[in-house]
Design a protein that fits this description.
With 254 residues, the chain is an alpha/beta fold. Helices cover 45% and strands 16% of the residues. It is built from 9 helices and 7 strands; from the N terminus they run E-H-E-H-E-H-E-H-E-H-H-E-H-H-H-E. Strands 3-2-1-4-5-6-7 form a 7-stranded parallel sheet, sandwiched between helices. The termini are far apart. It binds nicotinamide-adenine-dinucleotide.
Amino acid sequence: MSQKNKRAIVTGGTRGIGRAIVKELAAKSCCGVLFSDVAFIYNSCDECAEELQKEIGSPATKIYAFKADASSLEQAQATVADAVEKLGGVDILINNAGITRDNLLLRMSEKDFDDVVSTNLKSVFNYTKAVLKPMMAQRYGRIVNITSVVGLIGNAGQSNYSASKAGVIGFTKSMARELASRNITVNAVAPGFIETEMTAKLNEAQREALLRNVPMARMGKPEDIARVVAFLCSEDADYITGQVIAVDGGMTMC
Ligand SMILES: NC(=O)c1ccc[n+]([C@@H]2O[C@H](COP(=O)([O-])OP(=O)(O)OC[C@H]3O[C@@H](n4cnc5c(N)ncnc54)[C@H](O)[C@@H]3O)[C@@H](O)[C@H]2O)c1
């Protein structure tokens, strides 16, 4: 296993944290993770997907892009089947796709609640279910789910988002227990306040208020998350499962 490329599927790979994860897994050999061939899933911006493929594809790694809605089980199953055929199997799954639709509950629509839960939580069920058979058959797998610190501590105006991310944590721990005997580890990474298009929507006042709760007094970068994800997929993390690792500049400490 360690002498050949690993094979990874990453949801939400075209920008932000997902893009950094795709690059980290594909372009770098670190912490015992050899170069990985990567299939990433995206739902918008075909040019971004093409650009990423061109940027990191190399003789050492193969990069495939699949356009699909991560909240659809049918699409997840079709995409994973296609990706597994192209990659020749799957060793690593990173469930990263996510959205926000923030509002106080009094003003939150049913659609905004459902969309966030489908994209952030159901997608994790969809892709995990789709990779299980090949991972169980080879008795090896590394699954990392991207949750959020607000799944741990909550946040006013984000009841839909924090509920979906707390759900990801419960799902992660249950899957870790179900799959440990098959040598499949399942962990979650909880980013704090990271510089991406998701947080670019915040105004200066919201930004300052959030940073007051960050002991390191600065935002994180997508690469800060990607490096921890790569570590959890590496041989150095073989005995870690069911954990939630906050990468948040000290924001939660729980
Ligand atoms: N940025 C932060 O501060 C922060 C903090 C905590 C957690 N997170 C989580 O990290 C993950 C990545 O966030 P980001 O900041 O990079 O966000 P982003 O908005 O920059 O990127 C999200 C990615 O998910 C993809 N995506 C969204 N809906 C999808 C769908 N239905 N099907 C397929 N792909 C879909 C988008 O195309 C995009 O590539 C998310 O799960 C987010 O909740 C981010």
